[in-house]
Design goal:
The structure holds two protein chains of two kinds. Chain A is mostly helical. Chain A has 28 helices and two strands. Helices cover about 80% and strands about 0% of the residues of chain B. In chain B, helix 1 runs antiparallel to helix 2 and helix 2 runs antiparallel to helix 3. Classes of the chains: A mainly alpha, B mainly alpha.
């Protein structure tokens, strides 16, 4: 019988087809090829839903489609492309294809209606991006994931630099490409390390590398030395490999210290920001950790590092978001901060919580970016919030959907972000109290960030939509059409309701564990060894993570209180007819935050002041010593050749004499060796 | 019967005369003659040992050597002609264009 899984490759291929169509024939198509993209992503969405339904029926799929390098013996590895469809990837497929579809529709309003040129290139980029992201989601092994990871990075480069005739976008595109590539370099080394250690890079199944690693741990079923750990203790080696792969994750998910590319990436068109820098591409990093969580769960060190990077990034980015003037910049820093929460959740042992936050964040952040796009259309492409104000009456649809997204971002009950962010923090707390005290530090940072999140989110809302209009444009904004409002409404509803699938505090309070749908979804029916139940066991056995029993109610109320305090402060300061620039009162701190803790300058200094002299020294060594040796050898033979060639006199008698001498010498040597003269 | 060492001495003497000619003469024709002497020194050895062992293979072989020497002379004289045409001389030490 032909089922959903037989059509699953088409989920990836349809957007790829739209890429080819837009590239080849976009010029001749109406709207620059937009409809092809919309049709393709709609098809992907439908197929994803079908796959989702099939998976929820208890079926999973883990199969190789194509072997592009076949191993010849036990010692060699095979490189394969395959599909892995389990609850996690099925859920992610829907998120990606839904957001991609809505962004395609929104682009009609943001790009076509604004009379942009180069639209075929734009839609080709979107199509290729969607295809590669979907390919990444269904990847069944680490190498395939890496390949699509790189494609995603390439598309990001192409789309950020879409307006390549201006000055900012090409440089931002290069920065995004190089910074993420820096992280991917470690990822590539990690992929090779995984192949060298396990001989396979499959994510799931009995021959997958997380499972082999699990058996190879001390006390596992495999005998000692079953895998080659290069002389390290297995746990140490797995930590090293995990951290190498984490390099790619940190780059792609814009975690400290490789976060600097994301705010600059806002130079790209706003729908691109929504698709790539909020909902999907940055999600790739977090998704990768979730995908190979069985591997990370073996290493408490790697988990602690993930949790700390996450907690720190959450707080770090949130503080910078407080002082930004441009609406997209605030959203960019909030994106970094929210991905910090996901990393915190993963590092703290909250696999389900982090996945949950990944889902809700994809919806509400795409919504916020699209809402910001709508505002930017209305403001004739002015992004400065201090030039806005009072847009509430002029664009009610945008306002209310944006508000829904903001409430979700700030984590106000009952919007989506509350449930997911809260669960992340709750997991950090219970595992911290349960013995892994280090996690409490990461929890504290995450908790403080909640306050900042509430503040900057509502500062943004009030500055943009409330008060009196501060400029002529804000008094008479440009209208937006259905193609902008439609996606906003869909996402607005999702941002309000997506959290309801996993209301842990409510389930706890009412004693109804049945309503935690996401927990059930990830715990059962998946491929063995990749269920969240298995991960919990692993965490307890290997990483020594134990959850104390604690009602989620009190921590939930604490973070809700902090979020409300932040929002309330923003209300007091900015929800007035003509708000002042209160952040100026912060003085030096504001300057520090506004300049992003001078991280860009630091990185430029690192490149210019440290790496360049190093490179120069290496160049000197190369030019002087290495080339010197080579040149020396050649000049010795040149000199010797110049001398030796003089025996070539051209006089035959000399040659004859040399021949005779040579023969005599040979005879003498033979004679002495042979003992003729004794 | 004459013992073979006499033949060997004769052959060595002829060979050395040829070698001496090659090392000291400058005339290309004398060169050619010296080479002939050296070849025939070898022939003497072949024939002498053939008689000594009562085996005709050596004598047959010396016939081949003579045929070869004739061919060599043909080629050699050709070369000397060309040498003369190009350098107006048969002095081998004058033709030194193929040098370093």
């Amino acid at each position: 019988m032909v089922g959903a899984f037989d059509y699953a490759p088409a989920i990836v291929l349809l957007p790829f087809l739209s890429f080819l169509v837009a590239l080849a024939g976009g010029k001749y198509l109406p709207k620059g090829g937009a409809f092809g993209g919309i049709a393709a992503t709609a098809g992907s969405l439908l197929l994803s839903v079908w796959v989702f339904l099939t998976v929820s029926g208890g079926e999973t799929h883990n199969d190789t489609l194509y072997t592009w390098v076949a191993g010849v013996s036990e010692e060699t590895v095979s490189l394969e492309l395959g599909l892995l469809l389990d609850p996690l990837s099925a859920m992610m497929l829907i998120i990606v294809s839904l957001v991609a579809l809505l962004v395609h529709v929104f682009s009609l309003g943001y790009m076509n209606d604004e009379g942009e040129t180069g639209l075929p290139r734009y839609y080709a980029g979107l199509g290729l991006f969607t295809a590669s992201m979907l390919g990444f989601v269904v990847a069944d092994n680490l190498l395939m994931a890496f390949m699509f990871f790189e494609l995603v990075g390439l598309c990001s480069y192409l789309l950020i630099g879409f307006w390549f005739r201006q000055e900012g976008p090409p440089s931002a595109a290069k920065k995004a490409f190089l910074v993420t590539r820096f992280g991917d370099y470690f990822f590539l080394v990690g992929v090779v390390a995984v192949f060298a250690t396990f001989g396979t890079a499959a994510f799931a199944g009995p021959d997958s590398f997380p499972h082999i690693a699990e058996l190879a741990m001390p006390g596992g079923e495999s005998p000692d030395g079953a895998v080659n750990t290069f002389g390290f203790d297995p746990r140490t080696w797995f930590t090293i490999v995990g951290l190498l792969v984490l390099g790619g994750v940190v780059g792609k998910s814009a975690q400290f210290p490789l976060h600097t590319w994301l705010p600059d990436a806002m130079e790209g068109p706003t729908p691109v920001s929504a698709l790539i820098h909020a909902a999907t591409m940055v999600a790739a990093g977090v998704y990768l950790v979730a995908r190979m969580y069985g591997f990370y769960a073996l290493s408490p060190t790697a988990l602690a590092i993930i949790a700390f990077i996450g907690g720190f990034t959450a707080l770090f980015a949130a503080t910078m978001g407080v002082v930004k003037r441009e609406i997209k910049q605030v959203l960019a820093y909030s994106t970094i901060s929210q991905y910090g929460y996901m990393m915190l959740g993963l590092g703290a042992g909250g696999y389900v919580a982090a996945t949950f936050h990944l889902m809700t964040h994809a919806f509400f952040k795409a919504l916020l970016f699209l809402g910001a796009g709508s505002v930017i259309i209305a403001m004739h492409h002015n992004e400065n919030m201090w030039d806005m104000g009072g847009l509430k009456e002029k664009m009610p649809v945008t306002y209310y959907t944006f508000l829904s997204g903001s409430l979700a971002l700030a984590g106000i009950v009952p919007f989506a972000g509350f449930w997911s962010k809260d669960e992340v923090l709750y997991e950090a707390l219970v595992h911290g109290l349960g013995g892994s005290t280090l996690l409490l530090g990461a929890y504290a940072m995450g908790l403080v960030a909640v306050f900042f999140t509430g503040f900057y989110t509502f500062r943004m809302v009030f500055l943009t939509f409330h008060g009196e209009p501060r400029t002529e444009t804000a008094r008479d904004p440009h209208g937006v059409r259905w193609n902008v409002k439609g996606p906003l409404v869909v996402l607005g509803v999702l941002a309000a309701t997506a959290g309801l699938v996993n209301m842990t505090p409510v389930a706890e309070m009412l004693g109804m564990p049945g309503i935690e749908l996401l927990h059930k979804w990830l715990a059962h029916g998946g491929i063995e060894m990749t269920t969240s139940e298995h991960y919990v066991t692993l965490l307890e056995e290997q990483a020594d993570y134990h959850a104390t029993h604690l009602s989620p109610l009190v921590p939930g109320l604490v973070s809700l209180g902090l979020a409300l305090a932040g929002a309330g402060l923003a209300h007091v300061l900015y929800n007035v007819p003509s708000p002042e620039r209160h952040t100026d009162k912060l003085g030096a701190i504001k300057t520090l935050w506004y300049n992003n803790y001078y991280q860009d300058e630091l990185q430029v200094w690192l490149a210019d002041g440290v790496v360049r002299p190093l490179a120069r020294a290496a160049d000197k060594f190369d030019q002087g010593v290495v080339d010197g040796v080579v040149d020396g050898v050649s000049s010795v033979s040149l000199f010797a050749g110049g001398r030796v060639r003089r025996i070539q006199t051209g006089i035959v008698s000399n040659y004859a004499a040399l021949l005779t001498l040579g023969l005599t010498a040979l005879v003498l040597v033979f004679g002495i060796m042979g003992g003729w003269f004794v | 019967m004459v013992p073979p060492q006499w033949y060997l001495l004769l052959s060595a003497a002829v060979f050395c005369i040829g070698l001496f000619g090659i090392l000291t003469r400058r005339n290309a024709l004398l060169f050619l003659m010296s080479v002939e002497l050296m070849l025939n020194a070898a022939n003497i050895n072949l024939v002498a040992f053939s008689v000594f062992w009562g085996n005709v293979t050596g004598q047959a072989f010396s016939l081949f050597t003579m045929a070869l020497a004739a061919a060599e002379v043909a080629v050699g004289i050709g070369i000397i002609l060309v040498l003369y045409r190009n350098f107006k001389d048969v002095d081998v030490t004058k033709a030194t264009t193929m040098r370093w």
